[in-house]
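Hi C.,

You asked whether I'd gotten around to modeling the 386-residue construct. I have! Everything is below, sequence then structure, no commentary in between.
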Amino acid sequence: MNADQYKDLENQYGLNLYAKRDAVIVRGEGATVFDTEGRAYIDCAAGISVANAGHCHPDIVAAMQQQAAQLTVVANTLYNDRRAELLQRLIETAPTGLNRAYLCNSGSEAIEAALKFARLATGRTDFVTAMRGFHGRTMGAVSATFTKKYRDPFAPLIPGFSYVPLNKIEKLDAAITENTAAVLLELVQGEGGVNIADAQYIAAARQLCNDRGALLIIDEIQTGLCRTGKFFACEHYDLQPDMVTVAKALASGIPIGATLLNDKINVDPGLHGTTFGGNPMACAAAIATLDVMKNEDLAAKAHGTGEYFEQRLAEKPLAQVRELRRRGLMIGIELKSKVQPILEQLMARGVIALPAGATVLRLLPPLIIERDQIDTVINHLHELLA
């Protein structure tokens, strides 16, 4: 089949929930993906911060191939070697104080579990989240998400959610009540514009939760696993949350999510569960991914390459740029106009990038991206944003 035939099949038989780019991607290697015509694209989306270790890393591919020939599924009512090993690895790398994990299939599922666990642990019903935050599209996760276009078509949603501006301590203080089960925050708001939380704000959130008996949940679905220059973004803040949600990059594209939690949270058997969560295939991919992240020091690469990107971008005046916001290789370039035309022009030049709202260009390349590929992206940005 040719590219047009594949597009026709998706359009005919798929539920079209996404504005599609005009390319059929069939192969990936490192920070590059290829379409049906063999054209190469520098992937500055990485599946929305999924391919942190790069596309088709040979060590991760080998681990998946080996596991596929050995065992792909086992019920969670039985023990499993890969699951046990992954749980240990996750807790060994998690922020201090988190000592157990619930394995599931996605970021939204990890958020759903965190919301349920918080209600169980506290006996309370309400949640405080941040404006411009994004936590997923399932009913609990979308209830926690501020943006009205995601929420309003599905109203009435789960009650008890309130939204406060990021980095406004007094607003957060006023929102946390005796009914608040948890505060749920991103340390860098990805979908909301690559907005970075202030250290004082996060310290205040931790203290307010302590003082009022609420839990602090940190959504690291996009920021975790080396993206921000640390293994977890919590490390930038010396933060000890009660729960952390992770997904996206954890298994390099194999669906997986996890809710990491401390001793305040206890859930009796039967109150929550999953069929596919913690399956051997996903766990094997995640173990290999964590090994690559550690052995190749991808957190340090994200830090260094992110600094290089910012320095190179600043070499020329960019009249269309209002502000650059960056933590590691999580980059937001706020423009003075709509971002969509720039995304289309980048795509035509062989660079895949993302929006983060109407005016923010978001770049989330694989953390193994080479400097010459960064140079190519910078050259295009200098031309398009001047």
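If it helps when you're writing up: The chain is about 35% helix and 20% strand.

Thanks,
B.
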